[in-house]
Amino acid sequence: MNSRLPTSLAADIFTTHEALEIGIAAVNWSAVEDNLGRDGFSVLPSLLTPAHCQEIAGYFFQDVRFRSRIVMERYAFGRGEYKYFSYPLPDVVGRLRQSLYPHLAPIANRWHAAMRIDGRFPATHDEFREVCHAAGQQRPTPLLLRYQANDYCCLHQDLYGEHVFPFQVIFLLNEPGRDFEGGELLLTESNPKQPGRADVVPLKQGDAVVLAVNHRPMRSGRGFYRANLRHGVSRLHWGQRHTLGIVFHDAK
């Protein structure tokens, strides 16, 4: 049986995914860096089209694409489930990872310098993945999550080994108010020199949010110190909510 896509459909998908890379390049990355430095997160509106969202959410039921499935309640992570993609990643997921990384790596290097953390990140994701794999971090970490009524995710950090890229990107694949209610993205910050704070990040279908994985630099009179960040998801009241998580470091 011929498994190749019809020429016209393949061309449409290629054009759509090319447009995605163009959209990422057109983001005001200087403003993203300012937002990350001030808040620990930055929203990228309408980065995915509804067609992208539908395509990616549909992967959830294609078990062949994943290396593992986690039911959160078994591990006291919350309620809901998520699946880690296996290599090779689906084209759109791989393109997102490859296209976002070069814009975030320079910011990551400036953050590490400010916080006096050893190690700098190479220019391309392929190079960074080689670093991870050489250290035994060889399992892919992009993941697809599904929440249904009364599901939620506890506050956490996505750390999988020695090499941790300080940013990750989360994409909302459903529309609030139409497909689900509740399920807001929650971010908390623990600051050793100030009271802690929390943010609710409003997202629409196709929006992405770049957020700090574990900590961010905070300026003081003597330089910079580290504030600790965690993220989670509030309880879903009704409906179904899918998200795609792009984590750039692989896992052991």
Write up this protein.
It holds the Pfam family Oxygenase-NA. The structure is a single chain. The chain has one domain (7-247): Jelly Rolls (Sandwich), CATH 2.60.120. It has helices at residues 7-25, 29-39, 50-58, 91-114, 125-134; strands spanning 41-44, 66-71, 78-79, 81-85, 143-148, 152-156, 167-172, 180-182, 185-190, 197-201, 208-212, 215-220, 223-233, 236-247. It has 252 residues and is an alpha+beta fold. Strand 9 and strand 10 (197-201) form a beta hairpin.
CATH level-two architecture? Sandwich
Distance between the termini: 38 Å
The CATH homologous superfamily corresponds to q2cbj1_9rhob like domain
Percentage of residues in DSSP E strands: 25-35%
Largest sheet: 8 strands, antiparallel
Helix content: 25-40%
Total of DSSP H or I helical runs spanning 4+ residues: 5
Q: What is the CATH topology?
A: Jelly Rolls
Series of H and E elements: HHEHEEEHHEEEEEEEEEE
Mean pLDDT comes to: 92
Organism: Paraburkholderia strydomiana
Pfam family, one: Oxygenase-NA
InterPro entries: DUF2086
Protein name: 2OG-Fe(II) oxygenase
Considering the chains and any ligands shown, give keywords for the structure.
single chain, 252 residues, alpha+beta, Jelly Rolls, eight-stranded antiparallel sheet, six-stranded antiparallel sheet, 5 helices, 33% strand, disordered N terminus
